[in-house]
């Protein structure tokens, strides 16, 4: 018999498996083999981390955006993003949220890079050493994050201070997904925001705690089709406003639910959609049929308007109220009754001998 030996994939742990058998060493992207260590690697070094975790986990970052079957990860330095498909995520992709910390490996396919073997990290693992200044500023988004506008060259978004000294150009600060107070918020060019400034240990200033200043609108859910739906609001004439389920906060929606949301205009597609959708009311019971509504109107006890009073009950031609049962005799019924009357009964049969006698 031929024995088939299963080769370990690059997404399997290095070291030994549960049975104690050593796995074949595979060189990782840092030039080290799985399970090997280097004395020169520091405690926080990416090379040391890659060697300890094996081939697959060589990078760390944050979930930046989620689509139908894929998403983007922002790196630790907040200056690049990488694509990943849900099939390479170790776990249930529906539990992913923007801003979550993950670790992953990189796969190069020509000039393009994609993440492999993505898994979540405990919250706070990538806590950055930044000092947040207490002042709150007003500004305008000059450039969104690239995962929301793939046409731009730079990944990081840019927010510019609204005011500055006389004759001075207002300063601008870069930001990423971790800079947003609401990680589901879709900031676009021209959005008015409030923010603070943080300073890294290297002295780099970034915008943080960014909050969009927008008008929130209320409407009801009109239709749901899979992972998207439509609201009873028209940003464009004749077109119901579209929303994606990834923009819904706090549970699922049903047709008829009342929601609150913000309208955004996508720079690349030139289309409108709803973001930051929040459920504020349950679906109302279906309306009563018109025939029942009309009947209820006649039963109204409101004395303010004119009323109709019945002064005489309707009567039939014979002077009776309602419908009385009537029996009509047909010609067939009359003939049957006559035949029954002419048929000899037991008394007539019994007296026949007497007559003969």
Summarize the structure.
The chain is mainly β. It has helices at residues 46-53, 290-298, 331-342, 346-356; strands spanning 59-66, 70-75, 81-85, 101-109, 112-120, 130-132, 137-143, 157-161, 172-175, 192-200, 205-212, 217-225, 228-236, 239-244, 248-249, 258-265, 272-281.
If you had to describe this structure to a student in words, what would you say it looks like?
- InterPro entries: CSD, CSD_CS, CSDE1, CSP_DNA-bd, NA-bd_OB-fold, SUZ-C.
- Keywords: Cytoplasm, Repeat, RNA-binding.
- This is Cold shock domain containing protein e1.
- It is found in: Cytoplasm.
- The protein is built from four helices and 17 strands.
- It has 357 residues and is mainly beta.
- Among the domains are: 64 residues, Nucleic acid-binding proteins (OB fold (Dihydrolipoamide Acetyltransferase, E2P)), CATH 2.40.50.140; 83 residues, Beta Barrel (OB fold (Dihydrolipoamide Acetyltransferase, E2P)), CATH 2.40.50.140; 65 residues, Nucleic acid-binding proteins (OB fold (Dihydrolipoamide Acetyltransferase, E2P)), CATH 2.40.50.
- Strands 6, 7, 8, 9, 10 and 11 form a six-stranded antiparallel β-sheet that branches. A six-stranded mixed β-sheet has the order 14-13-12-16-17-15, with no helix packed on it. Strands 3-2-1-4-5 form a five-stranded antiparallel β-sheet, with no helix packed on it.
- β12 and β13 form a beta hairpin.
- The protein is elongated, with a radius of gyration of 40 Å.
- The C terminus is likely disordered.
């Amino acid at each position: 018999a031929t024995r088939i030996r299963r080769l370990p994939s690059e997404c399997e742990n290095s070291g030994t498996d549960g049975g104690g058998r050593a796995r074949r060493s595979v060189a990782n992207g840092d030039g080290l083999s799985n399970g090997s260590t280097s004395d020169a690697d520091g405690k926080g070094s990416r090379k040391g981390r890659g060697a300890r975790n094996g081939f697959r986990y060589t990078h760390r970052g944050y979930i930046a955006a989620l689509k139908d079957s894929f998403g983007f990860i922002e790196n630790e330095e907040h200056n690049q993003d990488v694509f990943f498909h849900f099939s390479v995520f170790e776990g249930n992709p529906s539990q992913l949220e923007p801003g979550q910390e993950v670790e992953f490996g990189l796969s190069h396919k020509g000039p393009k890079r994609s993440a492999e073997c993505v898994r979540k990290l405990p919250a706070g693992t990538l806590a950055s050493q930044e000092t947040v200044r207490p002042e709150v500023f007003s500004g305008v988004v000059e450039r969104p994050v690239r995962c929301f506008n793939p046409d731009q060259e730079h990944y990081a978004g840019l927010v510019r201070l609204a005011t500055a000294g006389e004759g001075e150009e207002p300063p601008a600060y870069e930001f990423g997904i971790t800079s947003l107070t609401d990680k589901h918020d879709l900031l676009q060019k021209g959005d008015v925001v409030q923010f603070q400034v943080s300073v890294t240990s290297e002295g780099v200033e970034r915008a943080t705690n960014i909050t969009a200043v927008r008008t929130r609108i209320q409407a009801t859910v009109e239709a749901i089709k899979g992972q998207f739906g439509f609201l009873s609001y028209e940003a464009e004439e004749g077109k119901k406003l579209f929303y994606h389920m990834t923009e819904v906060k706090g549970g699922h929606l049903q047709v008829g639910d009342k929601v609150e949301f913000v309208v955004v205009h996508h720079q690349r597609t030139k289309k409108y959609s709803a973001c930051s959708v929040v459920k504020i009311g349950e679906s109302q019971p279906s309306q009563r049929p018109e025939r029942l509504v009309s009947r209820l109107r006649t039963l109204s006890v409101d004395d303010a308007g004119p009323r109709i009073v019945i002064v005489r009950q309707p009567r039939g031609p014979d002077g009776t109220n309602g419908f009385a049962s009537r029996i009509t005799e047909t010609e067939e019924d009359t003939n049957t009754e006559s035949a029954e009357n002419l048929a000899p009964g037991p008394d007539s049969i019994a007296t026949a001998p007497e007559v003969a006698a």
